[in-house]
Amino acid sequence: MNHENLTGPQLFLRFAWPCASYRLMMGKITQAQYDELEKLVKSETEPDIALLMACFPNAVADLREYAINERRLHDLWSLTTVLGYWRVHKGMEAGCETVKCTVSRCPQNGLDVTASSGGESFRALNPYKLRLYQDDKVLVHQRCVIIKDMSPV
């Protein structure tokens, strides 16, 4: 599904999902929560905001702070606000930031992308089965391609 067809909460989950297994392993979420998130991701179903708040409290708090700073609190879970937040997401730990990349190669079992900043090549998964081509711009979080990036900058 193209990200323009997603709701804000669906896009939020798409970006946050790569962190779910780590959060489960660290005891930050339960197996039942993980299973529910997985089901929602696979079915591209609307997640309950309360579930997102419970599973990803730091990211939700950061989204809220971003919305306040951008004067978009009234529109906290809109696609525009959620996408804006994840575009500038720096993460809590090294390597957790969202990175704008250029697709350099698209093998069958994933894809190799080249980060637009510095030209570092690294392999990233394509868990959402996006139709990607060489030179497409994408946003990557936790070495997972999340969406095609249509922004001019």
Features:
153 residues; alpha+beta; OB fold (Dihydrolipoamide Acetyltransferase, E2P); 2 domains; five-stranded antiparallel β-sheet; globular
Q: Care to describe what's here?
A:
By secondary structure, the protein is an alpha+beta fold. Helices cover 37% and strands 18% of the residues. The protein contains six helices and five strands; from the N terminus they run H-H-H-H-H-H-E-E-E-E-E. It has helices spanning 8-16, 20-25, 31-43, 49-55, 57-69, 79-87, and strands at residues 98-105, 111-115, 121-124, 137-141, 144-148. It has a five-stranded antiparallel β-sheet, covered by helices on one side. Strand 4 (137-141) and strand 5 (144-148) form a beta hairpin. The longest helix has 13 residues, at 31-43. The two termini are 23 Å apart.
User: Major sheet: order of its strands?
Assistant: 3-2-1-4-5
Number of DSSP E strands? 5
How many helix segments?
A: 6
> Total domains, how many?
2
Mean pLDDT: 88
Structural class: alpha+beta
Tertiary shape:
globular
Compute the separation of the termini in Å.
23 Å
pLDDT < 50 runs, ≥5 residues? none
Helical fraction: 25-40%
